[in-house]
Design a protein that fits this description.
This protein is of the alpha/beta class. It has 2 domains: about 150 residues, Ribosomal protein L4/L1 (Ribosomal Protein L4, Chain: A); about 40 residues, no CATH class. Helices cover about 35% and strands about 15% of the residues. It has 7 helices and 6 strands; from the N terminus they run ββαααβαβαβαβα. A 6-stranded mixed sheet has the order 2-1-3-6-4-5. α2 packs across α3. The longest helix has 17 residues.
Length: about 210
Amino acid sequence: MKTDVLTLDNKKTGSVDLSDDVFGLPARTDILARVINWQLAKRRSGMHTTKSTSDVVGTTHRVGRQKGGGTARHGSRKTNIFRGGAVAHGPVQRSHGFKLPKRIRALGLKTALSVKQAEGKLVVLESAELDGGKTKDLVSRLTAMGIESALVVDGSAVNENFKRAASNIPGIDVLPTAGANVYDIVRRDTLVLTKDAVTALEERLK
């Protein structure tokens, strides 16, 4: 399928062929959900923890007499029933990540790209380059293009001036092609790809 190629000044400079195998797949919300859950699970630190009996500093001397005291036969002050004692069945440090097949991850990325294309929210730029890193200049150009919330994916490297200008704009994310992922594509309204990004993504996902 063909789509227009624009400049940052919102002028058409030509068109580009998009691969149906990457940008023409049907919407699969189940695949998107699996990949996003996998991504977010990997981001969780898993450092939450509580002290077990072995971690608590306290006496293990018997609290009272074994018999005749009228109380329970406690053997340690470190147990969870005493104030300052351990926590029973508390959280422990662990990894929340899980494995997801590569083919599912690839299918999720292709599905996300296809959904943006089908919704008419895919914009292809000739290049994402600015002469100066002025946020004001970039804001005016994006406003003229009707872009408020977008993920901009460049080629193997991001133009430093463009990255600097975009870093001060809420709702605008900039990534190189290697960083393109399902979560960041879905969370923004518009997906902006440079021609280099299109070529690199098709090569990566073919």
